[in-house]
Structures are given as structure tokens and as C-alpha cells.
Target: Isochorismatase-like domain-containing protein
Amino acid sequence: MTTSYNRLDKDNAAVLLVDHQAGLLSLVRDIDPDRFKNNVLALADLAKYFELPTILTTSFETGPNGPLMPELKNLFPDAPYIARPGQINAWDNEDFVKAIKATGKKQLIIAGVVTEVCVAFPALSALAEGFEVFVVTDASGTFNELTRDSAWDRMSTAGAQLMTWFGLACELHRDWRNDVEGLATLFSNHIPDYRNLMTSYNTLTNAK
Amino acid sequence: MTTSYNRLDKDNAAVLLVDHQAGLLSLVRDIDPDRFKNNVLALADLAKYFELPTILTTSFETGPNGPLMPELKNLFPDAPYIARPGQINAWDNEDFVKAIKATGKKQLIIAGVVTEVCVAFPALSALAEGFEVFVVTDASGTFNELTRDSAWDRMSTAGAQLMTWFGLACELHRDWRNDVEGLATLFSNHIPDYRNLMTSYNTLTNAK
Amino acid sequence: MTTSYNRLDKDNAAVLLVDHQAGLLSLVRDIDPDRFKNNVLALADLAKYFELPTILTTSFETGPNGPLMPELKNLFPDAPYIARPGQINAWDNEDFVKAIKATGKKQLIIAGVVTEVCVAFPALSALAEGFEVFVVTDASGTFNELTRDSAWDRMSTAGAQLMTWFGLACELHRDWRNDVEGLATLFSNHIPDYRNLMTSYNTLTNAK
Amino acid sequence: MTTSYNRLDKDNAAVLLVDHQAGLLSLVRDIDPDRFKNNVLALADLAKYFELPTILTTSFETGPNGPLMPELKNLFPDAPYIARPGQINAWDNEDFVKAIKATGKKQLIIAGVVTEVCVAFPALSALAEGFEVFVVTDASGTFNELTRDSAWDRMSTAGAQLMTWFGLACELHRDWRNDVEGLATLFSNHIPDYRNLMTSYNTLTNAK
Amino acid sequence: MTTSYNRLDKDNAAVLLVDHQAGLLSLVRDIDPDRFKNNVLALADLAKYFELPTILTTSFETGPNGPLMPELKNLFPDAPYIARPGQINAWDNEDFVKAIKATGKKQLIIAGVVTEVCVAFPALSALAEGFEVFVVTDASGTFNELTRDSAWDRMSTAGAQLMTWFGLACELHRDWRNDVEGLATLFSNHIPDYRNLMTSYNTLTNAK
Amino acid sequence: MTTSYNRLDKDNAAVLLVDHQAGLLSLVRDIDPDRFKNNVLALADLAKYFELPTILTTSFETGPNGPLMPELKNLFPDAPYIARPGQINAWDNEDFVKAIKATGKKQLIIAGVVTEVCVAFPALSALAEGFEVFVVTDASGTFNELTRDSAWDRMSTAGAQLMTWFGLACELHRDWRNDVEGLATLFSNHIPDYRNLMTSYNTLTNAK
Amino acid sequence: MTTSYNRLDKDNAAVLLVDHQAGLLSLVRDIDPDRFKNNVLALADLAKYFELPTILTTSFETGPNGPLMPELKNLFPDAPYIARPGQINAWDNEDFVKAIKATGKKQLIIAGVVTEVCVAFPALSALAEGFEVFVVTDASGTFNELTRDSAWDRMSTAGAQLMTWFGLACELHRDWRNDVEGLATLFSNHIPDYRNLMTSYNTLTNAK
Amino acid sequence: MTTSYNRLDKDNAAVLLVDHQAGLLSLVRDIDPDRFKNNVLALADLAKYFELPTILTTSFETGPNGPLMPELKNLFPDAPYIARPGQINAWDNEDFVKAIKATGKKQLIIAGVVTEVCVAFPALSALAEGFEVFVVTDASGTFNELTRDSAWDRMSTAGAQLMTWFGLACELHRDWRNDVEGLATLFSNHIPDYRNLMTSYNTLTNAK
Model:
């Protein structure tokens, strides 16, 4: 029952943010909007913090799907940005795949809207080309839980690993001593419970 | 961990609609009836839109199970229609299997009521004969979530892929440019949130 | 413990549809969108069927709130339509109140988006002016259940009666014999379970 | 804050079973069908056990609404049975009200399908005529929880008391010593957990 | 809208623990058993801590209902203990009412199993005799949420106040300075989250 | 992706009912008690109907676990009945395994209380000895959904197939024409929605 | 049934933020932490935006309850800040009541942690002194939904009005034309769905 | 489909308790705190009862994560206790792995907070080194159910077995006769329903 455990490696991982567009976000109903927005921004901050190559893509952004969340554009002004003219599976867009391959990374961290399409299709394509795929389930959203469960089953069966942004951050960071403050700030900004712990802790230790 | 990704191909796929009968529909309690009706009609519209060969079948329709949903009959007046005299697994009916094989397709998209019987049995039979099977989980219904989860596990373990109608449409369509209006109409008719996006978009762009 | 029961009377009731706009609808998350759309259209059909004076109003429809659901415009082409320039409580708009008073009706049936504002504010205003108020809870939507429960408590405490569209239809109709086919059609178009009953029934009785 | 507590009195109470018809039962989705069937039969057994005058009524039973649950007909072969020709509110049917008044009882225990119509309408009418009304919430069913909550609010505000069959049985019985075995049998037949307690208890005490 | 606020007063309150028996506890399914056990013991500890007169009663404890939770017997060895021979409403037992009146208190805090019977019946009786009644909702349990909601509505309408053990403790204590350690111990023993806060706090302040 | 589909065969299947004891049943909280009791009895009726060899076993039935549900004893008076003196995994009891092997069947249908122990342990043992194992998920119960989900994952991963009693009945029966009335009676007795369909159907067809 | 509707008036309302402390926040489990944090900050921004006099208070902030959320301190640097030495009901603290009376306002908007204590106690006290009380239910949190529902019932019965921050903002603002941009910014910062609407709208209108 | 079933063996199993720290516990929101605390203590008692080598570890316990639950320290005063200076995956700490290997056990029972990190990382590492891994799902907690489901999928796919503490106890104990009283005490202390069964049973049998 031995299984090799290829951990996420911050020197070998890239982040794909697929179709987090203002219109499409109104379709997401399997996660509460306050939580979902927080998760997406946490993933983006994480990508920034670990300096992971990040690729943005949108589907038909001039139509009803709407523009990319402005926060993502602002966080990654220099990232490859592929506004796909029509391909639903981002992997069908040559520029998108080129941008991925240009990073030289073999571990792909994927999140998007909606899960069973914008995440699952490129995830399955990437697996078929030999990439390791890590789906960020809490930064990916879709119509309802039934749809999500179906999509998770399809991706997991094909070999994708289901993770959430907090687990990603921890697996990439490995050891708090690499940078206590940086990681703590990331958590404090995106986990209210953790922020509360820090507030109480800091107050008590400063009071000494 | 490489996995081949055989996408749904509109030239190689057929749709099986199994036992969506007026009586049996009253047994479906794992999905809200408004949503379920919409999903079934969306799948039917999708089959029509992509011109996928579609096969209808019913179980004992002159008894308490009741007649097929009239909307399905009306949408597919010329489709093979197999009113099974008694076989519970539609695959045990020779005419049904003949009709499938006559399509020459190797990818079977299956939905029905109830999931663990009318969908799972033919799905397992088709897998055993080498077909690729795509279960439309949101156009299939059953008694409750516990039953559904058991059925999904059995089908997934046997190799069926769990999908929902929206994912099917996207995987079949591949590229919006193949027909923007057609796909958008399908979505607008069956996804109220998407319809709202289009309403706002059209109003604003027409106002220009 | 005697309580007078002033029933809804189709000769004394008017319907107010408040802010069912394409943008605002994306805020509604206490009811599934398939069900909510169906409920709103059922209420509209009901108003039409009973020939109740109906008044449409919108809030800032040229901004992000978006245009009124086109289906409502189409159903009531001649209804008073008040596009409010800014008043959040529709009752603060003189034209709106004038239109209501012009109907001469004393029973107001109100639905809208979002419940705690677009419904509750005019409901409270109307109660304060002596109208009987019937809130259509299933054709009114808001951010989440916590918000809805708060709004219901506020309105109920103030004297509004909480009803759903089906109950309204039944209380207005009084007796099936007034028009069996009309009421049955309304139910068949908006209650999938009832449609199934009718399908089975008609099939069996026609087969005789 | 003193409130008079007029208890249910088995010599002053009648039971109204409104529209528990085979077709209408398929509309009930706020209670699981196994539990709902059990609750309705428990209420019927309770009425029988306490020899409460019981009145049966149906709405359009020759149409899609379907026939009364056969178990109810069998339990009360001699009860007044009013097959209403069209009145939706049973109280609008003279025979129904006459049958009630003929019992001479002032406390009405009402259950039916669907809650906001078949229960709420006669409940409100009875309250308006000075009866005490006890709604059996768990033997009354409707489309969904939102509808139920609205109906409960309307009835409670008007003075109806919301109870469940077990509470009714206990309030009517007053003291176990009036008949231990009879009450225990009622509970054992309709509360699996209570039956288990009795099974274990009887086994242990018989083993002595 | 002025309302008098008669606070719970530890010098004027008594606690009634009704039918927390080993058999009846298996009927409780509206609260998770780990949480429910904790709530009942918290209420008992609270009664002990504030030295409130406490009265225990059971229904048919030699039958399937089973013996009182041994923890309650042990905590209140000298409390009036009324094993009712048959009365379902504890208020129908003279000894029970005598014991209550003997305390001279006018505020009654009631909890029990099951809510709609063992709590609601004596609550309604007590209100009718002019007592103030505080129902401890989280130390009272019943078959399911529908039953609970009905029982709450009946009791609240009759004038009972719905509270939980934590609120009771706070309203009785008034000011932390009356005894910081005592109240904190009560909370630490029954609120894991509060215990965690204290553990972290104590560790940090002791480390200074 | 071809998978062999070895269907349940009524000539090659045996049923194991493990520890459905009155005491243990009070531990079951992942399924509502009305539904659970119905499911267990449905499975028993099914075993009887298809004349499947059935084996009963209990754990420590003279202690707090309590006696077997009397209904099961009554239904299978001649079935092997192994009251295990202490083995938790029924497969560790030689008499139990002998009784199974004496049936000569290779397909084992297992249900019990609690799922992760009384079902999972013998299921895993049977799989290890080469039997095909079908777990009846809706006639097996445990403490909560988290526990159930863990148990299902462990059994499914080991090769057990998760089914519910209705699916079992359909897979064993194969064709309605083998006995329409027998199967319909089984469904009518254990599926209220199906019973309603039959009631309406029979009334209408008898009326002809 | 006429009810006077005394609307919230920004010239007559004050905001009381009670015990939103880092430690106590870990007790809040009836609202998701991402959503709860957002709601509290939305209420604070609202108070700021409408320039409502705001009063902060804490309970034992040097103990395990922890310090006030720093964001609140920063937003209201000049607000009365009452660190209560022990009073659980903030209204028992003279400074707190003085600060309230100093505002001269008669409408009190109250939020806090935990709902049934820190909100309910001062709410009931304020009502008893003739204030109008508006509870901000979504910026108040507690242990679980059962506790919340009990607290709401107690407060509503006593005359408090249950509202959420969005409804408050709308009732205070009255008319969009008073300041479109200000209100829209408040909504955009705290309602992701509204922000999305604005993003799409602005993109489309700017593109003209 | 034969699968070997390597049961948990009390002579070959060790328990790893990872990061059950007072601060981190406030992050756990996928299990109710009363239940979670009970589960963790049940697992600890189980480890003690079966005399399984147990290893404790913490992450940054002098920071906001807080100290280990004192109950665990007290139960295992002589167990290896590794306060990790920074490694997030406990397996990256040499002392931790050394302590595990020193036990000579090949079956590792792991629980911790949070599931997807503190449990999943060492579980995957242990699997990669050939250990058998049993995750105690109900003594492991995390942010929400979505996160938990993702973590379970990742661990299960890698070969970990998902179990709960009750199943562990039963699989380790094998036969009640090995020690009836010991196991019963463990259950009585941590399963309220089981304690109730024992209370009723003992009362009845002692009464003989």
C-alpha cells in the first residue's frame, strides 16, 4: 500500500486562475459569496507570496460573462493574461498552454469558475499530458453541491488531487521558520479565526 | 499519473433517457422538483441542439409508473421509443440495445429515474460491453441523498463518469465560436442566473 | 380567541411586484434560482388569471440593479410601471401610491427583491395606512435565510400575513367549480408534481 | 403574564382529516414520506383510541387529487365523509360544518394536505367562529419548509395552537393510569424508538 | 413599545428538571447527544452554583422510560424528588406543585424531555397560575425540529420566555465581580471553546 | 474501461442481518427512525420474497445491546440464528461463517447496526475470502453522517458494492413479468409514494 | 390592523457595538466566520457613513474574552469606549447608559456577541426604558442556531425589531439620490454579488 | 475482487495525536465543539485502554496556536512529546519519526487539527514509507465540510483508511470477552446513548 508522496514544491508549481469573471461569479452557489471571495483572494495572495508563476485567463469577457475580478488583475499586472476568444477548455487555447509550458513547472494548481467546466476540463487535459494537478476546491465554485460532487469525482478519478488554499500554503511553506511573519500575515488576512488568535496573543504578549 | 482524456465528442455520442415517467417522477426526492424538471428538459434540449441520437424508453408505462413526460415525447417524435414490457434493466431489452448499436456511437450519455436502477443498471451493462458511459447526475433522480450517494459510488467505481448537463454541453460544444447564439439560448432557457446576465448585458449594449 | 378571518377577495385585491430586476436577482440566495423564477412567474400568471390590478416598479433600473425581468414586462404591458428615480421604499414614490389608490383595492399582495427592503418597507407603510397586506414569501427573495427570517418577523409582528403563491391562488379562487380548467392549468404550469398527476390522470381517463 | 390554559379535553374534541388523498400526498415535500405516513396513521389511531368524533373530507377525489388514503377510510367506516364537489376551504361546505357542529365539540384538531390551504383555511374559519383550534403540524404536509413556515405563522398569529400527534395524545390522556397498555401500544406502533425501549424492557423483565 | 424587563433573580427562581430519564433520552433527536448531555449537566451545575431550589421529577421510572440520569440524582441528593405514578403533566401531581410552592419562588426555570409534553404542559400550567416561566430550550429535547418548533410557538405565545443555559447563567450572575472564578469554572466545564480561551490565556499569563 | 458486471443473482445470494438489536438501534442517528425501521423491514421482506437464505446474528443480546428486533425473529423462524458470545466481527464466529458457507452462495448481502463495525468488519472479512459483497446502506445505521461516510469509503475501497434495498430488489427480480403482483406488493408496503401511485391507478382503472 | 411605522431616522439613531472581542468571537458558530466578520465591518462602515453616534463596549477585555476587534477601535477612535469592569448586561454600567443618553437619540441599533446575552440584555433594558430597539441580527453571533432562535423570540416578543445591516442602510438612506456613490461604495465593499454587478456595469458603460 | 483485510492489531499499532492545541481548536468548524472534544478524549482514552504507544506533537505552541489540550498532557505524562520548532508536516521532524520508529509498530492511527494539514501531511508521508495508516476522522477537525471532504479524498486515494474512534476500539478489541467491563466503561464515558442503555439495563437487572 506504499504510495509515493510528491509534495507541492514552490520551485515546481504554477497557478492557473480560470474565468473568475464578474458575471460568472453570480452562477456560484455551492459556496457562500463572502467565503468564496475570500478564498479566491487568499489563493491569489498565496501565489504572490510564494512567487509562483501565475496565469490568468477569461472566457468571452466582453459578453455577459463579464470582466475578470479587478482584484486579480491588480495583483498580477505582469502575469500572462489570456482572454480566450471562444475555447471553453482553456487548454484548447495555444497561448494558454504555451504560457504554462514557458514556466517550466510540472505541478499545476488550478482554480476557476465553474468547477466542472473551467477547472475540470483543463485539469483533465493537463493530467493527460503528464502534469501533476492540484485542484483548489475552495477557490473554485459552481451551481450547486450536486454539480460539485460530480465534478470532484471525475477529477479525482482521473488523478487530480483535491486541496484547499490553506493546505496548499502549508504544503508549499514546509516550515514556519522559513518566514513566520509572512505566513502569519497571509493567514491573518484570510482566516478571521486565526486573526482573532493573533489579536489576543499579541495583546497579551505586548502587555508583558 | 497520466490519464487519457477521451472527451465527449458530439459525433460519437448518443443520449439514453430512461423512465422519466409521470408516476416515477413522484418518487424523486433528492432534487427539488422545479430544478429537476428544468434539468431533464435542459438535457433534452441539449440532445436536440447537438443533434445527438436519442433513445427513449419506459418501464410499464400503462401501470402506476405512468406515461413518459409529454415534453420528451414531443421533442423527439422520431426517436426510437422502447416501451419495455417488463425488463427493469433497459439493457435486457433487445430492441433498446439494438437501437443503441444502430447509432454507431461509443459514448453513451445516460439519465433516468430512479438513479440506482434505471440509470445504474444500463450504465453497468454498457460499461461491461466496452462503451464509455457518462451519467447525467442532475437529470437523474431517486428517493433520497443516501440512495444517490450509494448509486454514484457503484457507478463511478465501475468506470462511469459523473457529469451534469451544463458540463456535457460545454464539453460537446468545445468552442463558443461554433455557435454563440445557439449555446447562449440553451443556457438562457435553463439557467435563470445566466438569463439575468444576458438580460442586463443586452439592455446595456442595446442602449449604446 | 375569536379572530375575524378577512379572506383575500379577488374583487378587492391588487398585486405589487417590486424590483424583480435582472441584477438584483443575483443577490437572491435564500431560494434556489429555478424555484424562485418559477414562483415569480406563477405569481404573475396568477395575477393575470384573476385579473387583479397589478403594479410594477423598479429601482434605478438603468444602473447595476438592471432591467425588470422581461417576462414581467411582457405579461403586463398595460400595467402601471413606475421606474423609481431613487426612492428605496416604493411607498415614498407618489406615483406608486397613487397607482395603488387608483385601484380602489384594500388588500395588497406584495412580492419583491430583496425581502427585507423592497417588500418590507412598502408592506410596513401600507399597514400604517390601513391596508391589509399579504406578503408572497416564495416570490420574494433575499441574501440568505437569516436575513429572511428577520424580515418575516418584522413584517408579521406589524400585521402582515405571510403567504405563498399557491395559497393565494386557492384563497382567491374559493371553489374549483368557478373554473376547473383555468386553475388546473395554472397549477400544471408551475407545479411539476401537479403536472405529473394530471398527466397520469389524463392518460388513464383518455384510455378508457 | 397569566394565561389561561384550556387543555385538550377528550370529551370536547373532534378531529378533522382534510384531503389526505393519494395524489395530493405526492406534493408533500416538507416531511419525509415514511415519517409523514406514520404521523397521519398515528393521528388516526389516536382519534380512534380516544374515541374522538372524526370527520373525513376530500377535494375533487375523482380527479388528479386522487382518492383518500384507503387506511383512513378503513379506520373510520362510519365517520362523516364529505367529498367536496369544489369548495377549497372545507368550511365553505355546509355538510362539513354541519357534521362538525353535530359533534357538539368546541376543540377542533385539524390536519391535512396541503398545510397552507387545506389546514389553514378551515382553521382560520373555525377560529373566526369561536372554536379552539389545534393544528397537528406533523400530520399536515406541504411543498417545502418555506411554505410551511409561512402557513404556521399565519395560523399561530390568528390563535391556532401548533401541536404534534404525540403531544395531543399526552394532553388528551392526562394520566398513564387511565390505561397504560392502550397508550403504550399507540406509542409502540408509531415511535420506533419507543418500541425499542419496550422490547428491551419486556425482555429483561420477562427474563426475571 | 415599552416593555417591563423582569430579570431572572437568583433569589426568586427555582429549577424544575422534568423526566430526564435514560429511556426517554433515546427519543431526543433534535439535538446531538453529546451536546444535549452537556447542556443538561450545565443546567444542573448552574442550579447548584446559584443554589437555586431544584425539583426533580420522573414519569413511570420503573417502566421503559427508565431511571433518571444518575448524574442528576447525584448532584441533588436532597432535592425534592417526585416519581410520578402516572400524571403526564407534572403539574397534575400535587406533590410536585407543593414542592414548587414550598420554595416561595415566582420564577420557574423548566427543562425536560420531551419538550412539547414534559416541558410545555407544566410551563402552560405554571403560566396559568401566575408564575413567570423560563424554558431552557437547549436542555430540553424532543423527536425532531418540527416538533420542537411547534412546541416553542405554543409556549412562547402563552407567555413563556425561551432561554438557553448560558443566558440563564449570565442573567442570574449579573456581574462577573460577584465571583469570577465560579462562573469561569462553570463555563470552562461546559463550553469547550471557552475552555480553550482560558487555557491559552492562562498559559500566556503564567509564562510572564 | 471495460468492467464486468456480475449482477446479483437470486440463486447465488444470501442475506446477513447483523445486530439489528433493540438497544443498538437507539445509537442510529444517520437515518430517521421511521425511515430506518421501514428500510430494515423492507430488506427482510425482500429476502423472504426472493427466498434468499438469511442468517441472523446478534452481539451480546442479553446485555444492554438488547434483543433482536422481534419482527426479524418472526419473519425468519427457521433461519440460522447466531447469538455471538463476544466476537465483535461476526466473521470471527465459526458458526456464523459455517452457516454462510452452508448456503453455497457467493454473493453476500449485508446490513447491520452499526455500519462501521457490524457491517464493515464482516464485509471486509468476506471480501478477503473471495465473496462478492453488497452492502445495504439504507438498512445499516450508525452514529452520524461523518461516521457513515468514513465507513462507506473503507468498504468501497476494499471492493464492496454500496446498494439500497430498492436497487437490490430490482436487480434480483430482473423482469416485472416474473411476478408483477409480488414485486408491486413489496414496493407498496415499503414506499409510501409508490403506494399512492397504485392507489390512484387502481381507483381509476377499477372505475372504468 | 393599522400599525404605525416609525422608520429608522439617521438623525435619531445611535449604534451600540457590544463585546465584539477577539476571544468571544471564537464562540460564534451560528454564522460562518467570513460572513460574520464582513457583517460586523459593514455595520461599522454604515455607522460611519451615516455619522451615527456609536458606542463601543467590552466585557473583561483583559481576560480570556480578549481585546476588541482592532478594526472597530480604528474606525471609531473618538467614540465612547466603555470597558466594563464586570457588568454582563452593558445597561448595568452607568457610563454606558450615560453615553447613550448623551447622544439624545431614541432609536438604538444594537449588535454584539453573544446574541442572547450581550445583545438581548441591553435590548430588553432599553425597551423597558422606552427606547426603540433595532437588533442587527447578522452582526450578532452566538453558539448555535437553537440559541439564536431562542434569543430572537425573546427579543421580538419584548418589542425589539429584527433587522440586518443591509436593511438598516436602506431604511436610513431613504433615497439613492441622497448620495448614490456613497451607498454604492458601502454595498460594493461588503456584498460580493453587488460588487460583481457594479464591475460588469462599469466595464460595459465605460466601454461605450 | 479479493482484498486482504489487515486488521488493526493492538500489538502492532501506535497513535499519533497531532496539534490538538487550544488555539487551533477554535479553527475547527466541521464538527460541533461538544462532540469534537468528546471524540478526541475518547480516542485518548482508547489509546490508554489498549496501551497503545502514543506520541504527542505540537506546532509552535508558544505562539497563537496555543498549548496542547491539558487533558492530553495529563493522560500521557510519559509519552514522547515533540514540540516542533517549525515543521508543519510532523513527519519532517526527525524526533517525531524516530519516536514512531522506536515503537516498532507498523500501523499508525492518526488524528489532529487541522485535517488537511496536520493529519494529511504525516499520513501521506507515512504511507510513502510503507506504514499502514488509519485516519481517525472524528477526532480530526478543520475549517468546514468542503475542506474536510477534499482532505479525505486525498488521503483515501493515497491508501489511508478512514475510521472513527468507535470502529477503532471495536477492531482493536476483537471480542467482548477479552474485557467486558473495560470496553463498556469506555463506551459509557463517551457515548451518551450507550450510557443510557447501560443505566436502564443495570437498573432493571439490579432490581431483580
Residues 81 and 135 of chain A are 20 Å apart (CA to CA). The two ends of chain A are 51 Å apart (CA to CA). DSSP finds eight helices and six strands in chain A.
